[in-house]
Design goal:
The chain is built from six helices and no strands. The chain has 173 residues and is mainly α. Helix 3 (57-87) runs antiparallel to helix 4 and helix 4 packs antiparallel against helix 5. Residues 1-7 have low confidence and may be disordered.
């Protein structure tokens, strides 16, 4: 038996759709990411206030909301990856080229990487060294760019290709 056969024999069987937990996590993560934006503004205000002024209590609360929602994003990204490894990902739709499949895999890898890297860099900036904050900010903008591409691709599949990519993530069909 060659190594490829051994790997495929150990891999979970491919499924046809995402389960309810995967879909719920998929849609919860963007909501948590949206929460990050106004709470990040509060972090900036708390750091500007440290010179001579006390930060506003609401900004301190929003700072904590930013941290906790970031850690929740990290947890959900790790759970999604674990579920993907345990359950596999759905089989590609008919008509998906190898190039499309590779681009989709690269996009998902980058999204998961950023969803893990952002809470880690944010935690380091918050508790260890604020010098990493520019990297954290850059990764935030990179995540936004990739999310916009991801949304565009989902809409392209739905309206142009008229396939079930978007339906699989909404309905599980």
């Amino acid at each position: 038996m060659n190594p490829e056969q051994r790997t495929s024999a150990l891999a979970p069987p491919r499924v046809r759709a995402f389960n309810a937990y995967q879909r719920a996590m998929h849609w919860t993560v963007p909501i948590l990411c949206i929460i990050q934006v106004p709470t990040a503004w509060a972090i900036q205000r708390t750091h500007m206030a440290h010179g001579f002024l006390k930060p506003a209590p609401i900004d301190l609360l929003l700072h904590q909301v930013h941290a906790w929602s970031g850690w929740l994003i990290l947890l959900m990204a790790l759970l999604q990856l674990a579920m993907r490894l345990a359950r596999s990902r759905p089989v590609p739709l008919e008509g998906t080229s190898r190039l499309e499949a590779r681009v989709a895999a690269a996009m998902h890898t980058a999204l998961y990487g950023l969803l893990i890297a952002l809470p880690v860099t944010g935690t380091i900036a918050m508790y260890l060294s604020f010098r990493i904050a520019p990297l954290h900010r850059f990764l935030s903008w990179l995540l936004l760019a990739l999310v916009l591409i991801h949304i565009f691709a989902a809409l392209w599949h739905h309206f142009y290709r008229r396939d079930n990519v978007l339906r699989r993530m909404i309905e599980g069909s």
